[in-house]
Amino acid sequence: MTDTDLKYETVAKTSDLKPGEMMYVEVDDEPVCLINLNGEFHALNDVCTHQDASLSDGEIDGDEIECPLHGGAFDIRTGQPTSFPVVTPIEVYKVRVVGDDIQVALTR
Ligand code: FES
Known about the structure:
This protein has a single domain, classed as Rieske Iron-sulfur Protein (3-layer Sandwich), CATH 2.102.10. The protein is about 0% helix and about 45% strand. It contains no helices and 10 strands. A 6-stranded antiparallel sheet has the order 1-10-9-4-3-2, with no helix packed on it. A 4-stranded antiparallel sheet has the order 5-6-7-8, with no helix packed on it. A hairpin with a 2-residue loop joins strand 3 (about 30-35) and strand 4 (about 40-45). The protein starts with 7 loop residues before the first strand and ends with a strand. The mean pLDDT is about 95.
């Protein structure tokens, strides 16, 4: 699948999210955590792979997002687990900026 085959959906404006901030959005009813990491936008599934917690209620720590429930963490860029009790990677999604729209595509 090429990038042009992906179905991008506008979820926010670039001005909605400053560096170091994140927000909860939905794409096709899928819960997504949208993050501005040093001016780069990233999107991960919002539901922690450990239990049922919303990552957008957690905290950004360097390049990682920390879950609010048990403190497990994921690499924001790759979705790989970085801190126990998280052991399963979380889905990361493609993000692009068109004009001042932030767009996310669910299919990787
Ligand atoms: S629910 Fe996220 S670390 Fe437990």
